[in-house]
Amino acid sequence: MPVCATCCHQWSFKETMRAMYTLKPSMTCPNCRQEQHLTSVSRKRGAYMPFLILIPMLLNAFFDLNWLTLFGGMALIAAVFHLIYPQLIELTDKEEPIW
Ligand SMILES: [Zn+2]
After folding, report:
1. pLDDT computed for residue 48 by the predictor
2. How much distance in Å is there from the Cα of 93 to the middle of ligand 1?
């Protein structure tokens, strides 16, 4: 789980999920209320998400999957990513460029 770069508060899974689904590019620490930013490594990990969801479509080109398997696989990958990604988030108090 992410740890605040300012106060070292370890965010809970619920706090992390709530902060992930806001429109702001930064996340507000629930403990000290300071703005936190994803590190460039965390942002790169998040950028892989759209490519992971496309894996069933790639497999469909070779194995001719039915639509339920195709969309079920995409939903499963998205769900697994959303459960794992909050545990991989690292925070910093300075905004870093992604590349
Ligand atoms: Zn904090």
Report:
1. 83
2. 9
